[in-house]
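Journal club side-thread
Mid-discussion, someone asked how the predicted structure for our own chain would compare to the paper's figures. Pasting it here so we can look after the session.
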Amino acid sequence: MKTLVCGCILFCLFLLPTAERDDATKACLEQKYNSNSCHKVFCAPWQRCVDGRCICKLPYQCPRNSTLRVCTEGKRTFQNYCQLKSAECSNPIYRFSSEPPCTETFEMSLVASKKDSAGILKVKVPTLQKSLFLCSKGWSLREANVACRQLAFTKGADASAEQTFSLPAAEQQSSDCLSVTCRGLETTLAECHLQESTESGDQRAGVVCYTASRQCNKDEFSCVNGKCIPSFRSCDGENDCGDLSDELCCTSCNNSFHCKSDTCIPLKYKCNKEVDCISVDDEANCNDTKTEIEPKTRSENENSEEQYNARSKDMDEERKLLRHLIPTLNCGIAPQKHARQKRIIGGEKAYKNQFPWQVAIKDGSSLNCGGIYIGGCWVLTAAHCVRPNKPERYRIIIELLDRLSYDNDIDSFPVKTVKVHELYNPNTYENDIALLEVINIYKKPECMQVDNNLVAACVPWSPFQFTTGDTCTVSGWGRQEGFAKVFHLKYGHVNLMNNCSEVYKDRFLDKMECAGTYDGSIDACKGDSGGPLVCVDVNNVAYAWGIVSWGENCGVAGFPGVYTKVAHYYEWISRQVGRTLIAKHNI
């Protein structure tokens, strides 16, 4: 079997030249990512990620926990906001209007308008006895997009037009208005934060909705929804397009936070206790180490009428609460360390349970490959390590630290099924990925996790969760320099690299990842084929980012190791093992 052949590379290969950055941006834009692209954004609680798209759940798939009962414009009651939004996905008549009682509905109209696509806005909130204009202070294209969407203009507001207007003379004596704050993806202003306020002057919020149908000019950004916005409005953290497409392919950001996944989010989302970046880096280096908001439950707030009346309560708080109530998969968290770990790149001996997802694959009497435990009865490995028609020849050994010194904790499982990717090419190592299903010898739901310290590594669903320059860890029993045998499990820290096509010419293909170290004098790669390249996010959650596949000249600068990039195979894996086994979010 092929041992790990990974080396190191000079620092310059980590830096993307301008032309290459432009090519990457162009390739990204060609994918037409938008607010429903779960490779770039988290799906809403009423959605789930399938084939890179956020698709709507059925209402019964929402959390059963009762949060806030809500009313539709048709005065129908739903148990919670998630159920209403799930129903709205299939029929827009279920658009949110207010909280119970459902005797009145949220109303919005254009005033002093000569056409149905532009004018000043007036709103009637069910809890108020009067209609009010909307304050101009704080009103932005984000809110205007929502208002236009509510008026059935699906492309939102015109980014090149002013979205505030002068009050009619007959209305200028009143200073009362409603201030509005939206996240930008709502379908009605009723879902936004509405607060009674006062404002001097005669300016009030309004809309000029986008009605054009044309090709964008050279100085404009072409939104996925067909809308054109000024180029300077892209990559500024604001959802100017209305579908987020102007913020999802950005190598840098203007006055906003740049996620490593090349998306831009508003600066106020940084360290707000809610993860907004797929790469989780918006919650890194925050004073408060918690990264997931924990809103109070409905019962804890039931005595606070102001908190839940429609004048001060926005549905974004409900979205956050619902997101908190949805369970997440428990994976990728290693047990606490039992020994000191030297922070040295490459070649260190692992201590017990340091890599609890690492398994060894025994082929007859030989141990030539590693594997990655991903949950249940399933192990991920390289296709070139196994044969699909010979499951009886393999055993999975767990918690193995030293191949020459088995202890009483060592357990092994016979293999029931070998599933090699149907498009695996042994000549090019394309699609070098396979799954092994073991026999459930204990006949318990935990399968391989009975009375041991085995922990599943998380399976990444997006190829943007980790990026060039991130430091990850490869582990295994591969051979050392001079091809000397290794008996103790070792590990090395390597850096993800942007592209190995220059090193390996036509042999480095789209679904491959390469990784190495800065200094070729240190061999950071001691793992066997099929073993894990694990990357850890800001929450110390470990993801099986790569499977050791191939390479040349182990330990030589300029020849990084090549791995199968697991994120590209998320759907394939889920079809084999079941989505609930590997779905980290929205299960």
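Post-session note: The radius of gyration is 27 Å.
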